[in-house]
Amino acid sequence: MLRLQNLHKTYGQRAALSDLTLHIPPGEVYGLLGPNGAGKTTVINLICGLLRADSGQIFINSRAASAATKSWIGVMPQENLLYRSLSCEENLAFFAKIYGMPRRVRSRRILECLAAVNLLDRAKTPAEDLSGGMQRRLSLAIAIVHRPKLLILDEPTTGLDIEARHDVWELIRHLTRQEGMTVLLTTHLLDEVERLCQRIGIIKQGQLLTEGTLEDLRQAIPAQEIVTLETPTPEAAIARAQVHGFTPRRYGSDLAFWVPDRLELKDLLDRFDGIALDSIARHPVRLEHIYLEATTKAGL
Ligand code: ATP
After folding, report:
1. Residue closest to 223 by CA, chosen among 260, 254, 196
2. Which of 211, 80, 95, 89 is nearest to 157 (CA)?
3. Fewer CB within 10 Å, N or C, the chain?
4. Given CA atoms 56, 60, 62, 64 in this order, what sign does their dihedral have?
5. Given this model, what pLDDT does residue 179 score?
6. Is the pLDDT of residue 297 over 70?
7. Domains of the chain
8. Beta bridge partners of residue 208, listed in sequence order
9. What tens digit of pLDDT does each residue of 46-59 get?
10. Mutate to test the pocket of ligand 1, among 18, 32, 42, 79 (most ligand atoms within 8 A of CB)
11. Which residues approach ligand 1 with their CB closer than 6 A?
């Protein structure tokens, strides 16, 4: 559905994207991750035709990206682009008209979209009177009003409280299943990606560092679990852990170890026998660990 091939983009002397190639098959939800400045917004702007690549190609539904393919794309931008004084219904009508949707079809589609994002009872409410979560849901409704084949979600739940975030996640799941849309999602919320995405790409400085399903990416960390310790003698703990084949890592200020085998708690504690411990905690390998491994020097 979406193919980016050898994309290069520079701003002046600065390379924002270098030889970026990725492919998202139809119906897939793909999470594009990367630190600030990695090039995610540049990718979105290129796909939407707001920027021109220096070289490389973009194909949408097997057609080279052009003015004609724009109507296949729906975007939920990072910042809500809503007409504040217009009602939900009027906002949707405005965008539906831009896409040239005939009046008769338009009214039905607007109601469908409001229903899809649970805003039917707010149809007449001005956008400025909606909560932050409702405004995000209205932005999502606008992004899908013209039934795009490719939906781009740029940080869809940033700034929302946890309940509103769950609502948006549920809607995205529902929409992608029901309408079979292909989704490109960018976010800094790694649990959002774990919940929604079938495949994940991690970029940094405009280059794709790694890509695959969560299971594929887990291969980068050959551990059954990750153990974090608080200890007044970290050097002693690291030396001991290495004797047992545990790989040490620093995640922020946390001292952590990749533990290659699943151990009983008693056996795990035995491995640190004689080391002063203030606390010990066990964690599954999460996308957060994979992301840090790919993008930073987490090693000691
Ligand atoms: P964030 O997570 O902070 O939104 P991003 O991954 O979306 O970051 P981009 O906004 O695509 O990153 O930026 C990629 C690089 O290009 C950065 O180094 C940024 O400073 C640079 N850049 C982006 N837009 C411009 C511009 N208009 N002029 C000059 N440099 C730019």
Report:
1. 260
2. 80
3. C
4. negative
5. 77
6. no
7. 2-214 (3.40.50.300), 222-284 (3.30.70)
8. 203
9. 999 999 999 999 99
10. 42
11. 11, 14, 16, 34, 36-42
